[in-house]
Amino acid sequence: MRLMTLYGIVIQRGEIRSAAGHRPSELLNLEDACVIFWDDVAERIYLYTGPKADVRSRFLASRLASVIKLRRGGVGTVIQNKDEILRALAGKDAVDRDIPPKFLSAIR
User: Fold this and answer.
1) Structural domain boundaries, residue 53
2) pTM exceeds 0.70
3) Residue-wise DSSP of 2-36
4) Which of 17, 32, 71, 95 makes an SS bond possible with 8, Cβ 3.0 to 4.6 Å?
5) What is the pLDDT along the chain (108 residues), one digit of tens a residue?
6) Is residue 107 part of a domain?
7) Pairing state of beta strands 33-39 and 44-49?
């Protein structure tokens, strides 16, 4: 059985920031940012949109979630409910790695 690697990235004010090493629960409290988590084993993409996130950040986050899904062969589920994301990632102490540049380059 392969262990989950949790990838993540923060998009705040249209800028991409690292999520590696941060607790998912901490990142889900950012009101002015969007956070994308990707579980490569369960093929789930978690997309959190802060209530005060700007339009550009929302657009980039949505596009990134779509790019990840498409580049993985259209496989996977995108989950956007904050409570569901918290439940799914409750056992995860920190984001393992940032989302790879090959995915990020498609949204720039």
Assistant:
1) 6-98
2) yes
3) PPP-EEEEEEETTEEEE-TTS-HHHHTT-TTEEEE
4) 95
5) 567 799 999 999 999 999 999 999 999 999 999 999 999 888 899 999 999 999 999 999 999 999 999 988 887 799 999 999 999 999 899 999 999 999 999 887
6) no
7) antiparallel
